[in-house]
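Researcher: Let's do a round of design. I'm pasting the structure tokens now; please hold your answer until I've finished.
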């Protein structure tokens, strides 16, 4: 921590550099940490604290030494353990370079575990919103392992398989209609010997699309 000093504009200044474990390489995360600490300060003092890159800076005019010292001590205590501050949605999207749709998909299927929820009131509104937050160490691990691209490849393969299955089912339905059959497929698994003349049936049965 730097000791308070005066600049040419007769201001008291103190600065803290946020550790990489706290920011996870994201300016949005750094800004989130600023807003978190600001929210803990008295309203009149909030704009005295600002950020540039990973550096938090407290600035007050000359003559407010006591208030400056108390605020500085408070900021320093607030930064203790800041690397454990839960990651909010917009931060994880920036850190992992993912879309909101991907975040929702991977949260719902369990690949992106939630660390709980947080409820906040929107500024100037009565409505509150609740959202999932994430463990920063989990996010760091996902970032280090580079799993996002693997997940995207898995999703693409699943989407392609779903399209293939849908195409086969559509083909079977058309074949049944052409053969004078009902368009509803029996719930019991058909036996190929009972459908010797059905076009495409062998490929359909082999791919296991009715399993």
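Researcher: That's everything. Go ahead.
Model: Designed sequence:
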């Amino acid at each position: 921590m730097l000791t308070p000093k005066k600049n040419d504009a007769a201001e008291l200044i103190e600065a803290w550099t946020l550790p990489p474990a706290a920011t996870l390489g994201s300016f949005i995360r750094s800004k989130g940490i600023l807003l978190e600490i600001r929210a803990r300060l008295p309203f009149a003092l909030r704009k005295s604290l600002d950020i540039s890159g990973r550096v938090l800076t407290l600035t007050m005019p000359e003559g407010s030494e006591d208030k400056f010292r108390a605020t500085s001590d408070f900021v320093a205590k607030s930064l203790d353990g800041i690397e454990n501050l839960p990651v909010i949605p917009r931060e994880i999207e920036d850190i992992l370079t993912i879309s909101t749709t991907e975040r929702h998909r991977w949260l719902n299927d369990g690949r992106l575990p939630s660390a709980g929820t947080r409820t906040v009131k929107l500024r100037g509104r009565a409505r509150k919103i609740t959202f999932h937050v994430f463990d920063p160490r989990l996010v760091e691990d996902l970032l280090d392992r580079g799993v996002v691209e693997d997940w995207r490849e898995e999703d693409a393969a699943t989407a392609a398989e779903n399209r293939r299955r849908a195409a086969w089912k559509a083909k079977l339905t058309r074949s049944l209609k052409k053969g004078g059959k009902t368009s509803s497929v029996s719930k019991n698994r058909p036996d190929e010997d009972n459908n010797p003349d059905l076009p495409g049936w062998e490929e359909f049965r082999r791919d296991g699309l009715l399993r």
